Amino acid sequence: MEQRASAALEQRLFSVSLVTRRSGVSGAPADYVAGDFLTGHLAPGAPAAARYAQAVATALAAGIAGRGVAATARGAGLARSSVQDLLAGRGWPDLVTLAKLEDELDVTLWPGRDRVR
Predict the structure, then answer these.
(1) Which of 40, 85, 93, 94 could pair covalently with 35 via S-S, beta carbons 3.0-4.6 A apart?
(2) Chain centroid to CA 36: how far?
């Protein structure tokens, strides 16, 4: 039994090491936007990831309107700074954070392709 548990743990650790790494994108999403991250224009040649990050931040700002960053973060089980960073384009949104925020706000944050073009 102990050997099986050890093998299962080893497999999970191996799977974690296979997480896709970001390449071809450097800096923060806001580095690709002129002016305010939520309303500014993307720089020519900005990666698709920057368009998606801006769309997520815009949807997040609309979703928390009237509710506040602190209450949203607390309800989602996140640090307030994580939500603030997404809104300001200081960090790339990750799947776990998006899932927690979507569940808390009952909104879709991840844009469809038609929303980022």
Answers:
(1) 40
(2) 18
